[in-house]
Amino acid sequence: MQQVIIDCDPGIDDALALEYAIKSTELDVLAITVVAGNAPVDIGVDNAFKVLERCDRLDIPVYRGSEAPLKRSYVSAQDTHGMDGLGESGINRQSTVQPQEKTAETFLADFFAKKRTVGVLALGPLTNIAYAIQLNPKLGQNIQRFVTMGGTYKSHGNCSPVAEYNYWCDPDSAKLVYESLGKIIEMVGLDVTREIVFNPTILEYCRRINPDTYDYLRKITKFYFDFHWQYEHLLGCVINDPLAVAYYISPEICDGFESYTTVDTEGISVGQTLVDRYNFWKNKPNSKVLETVDTKKFFTQFLTVLLDAPEAIIASDLNLLKLG
C-alpha cells in the first residue's frame, strides 16, 4: 500500500478523486491539505469533510491552506463547479469536525523535514506546495513521488487558449515548484485528462450497478454536464483529477516523456506550461509529461472502486458497452 498526502481544491472532480483514493486498497491517504482553487478554501475544506463523511473516514486529518495565490488575485472556478463547489448539489455536511490547527503549508514543510516513503498528489493550484518549499527548501528531496494534475503540452487550455486552470490560477507557484522542487514532477495534464469523459452512458451504467452511488454521482455531476455542454458541446464531463489518482496507483496507465518544464507567469500566455521536449535550453529534466492514456483501464479501475463491484464484471461490461 502506497502512503500519500493529497493536496486539493475540492470541486467536483476533486471530490471524485478523493473518494477514489480513500476507497482504493492500493493507497493509504495520510492527510488532506486544501487550497483555494475551484472554490474558496473554506468551501474546499467543507467539501473535503463531506467526502470523508461519505467514506466514513473522518479520522483522516484535514489542513486548511492558502486562500489566495502567491502573487495574483484569486479567481475561483465556481462557474464550472457551482457556488458550493459540488455542482449546487445541496449535499450538507453532518459532522462538526474541524481542520487541524497547523496550516497546510506548515504541515507539509514539517512532515517532509525527514526523508519519507510518502508521496504527494497535488490536484489543485500549487500554492500550498510553493509556500511549503519556501519554509523547507529540501522538501522535494524527501518526497517519494510528486504527481500533479495541471498544465497542458499539446492540448488547448481550459481557461485560455494555452493554459490549464490550476496553473493559470497560480502560475507563480507552479513556476516556483517546477524550478525548485528538485524532483521529477509527474504532470498529468489536459493532454491525457481530456480523454477521461464521464458521459451519460457511464452514469446510467452506474445506476444499474450501484443505485446509491449513482444518486450521488448524478447530483454532483449535473452542473458539470451542463457546463461542458454549454462551453464545449460535450455530452458528459471531463473528470481530470481521478486520472491523477489512477496514474499514481498504476503508472502504466499513462505514458509520456521526461523534459524540462516551466510555467509562464505574465502576458496573454500566463499559466502556460513551457515544455522543452527537444532540449533547446539544455536543462536537466525536471518533469515527466504524460501524453497518452489507456481510457478503458482507467474506467475499469475507477468504477470498480466507486461502485464497489468486481473488477472482472466492470471490465466485461465496459467491453460489451464499448465504453472507455
From TrEMBL:
SUPFAM superfamilies (alphabetical): Nucleoside hydrolase
CC per GO annotation: cytosol
Inosine/uridine-preferring nucleoside hydrolase domain boundaries: 4-299
Keyword Hydrolase: yes
Keyword list, A-Z: Glycosidase, Hydrolase
Entries under CDD domains matching the protein: nuc_hydro_3
Superkingdom field: Bacteria
Swiss-Prot/TrEMBL GO biological process terms: purine nucleoside catabolic process
A GO molecular function held by the record: purine nucleosidase activity
Pfam families with a match to the protein in the record: IU_nuc_hydro
Protein name: Purine nucleosidase
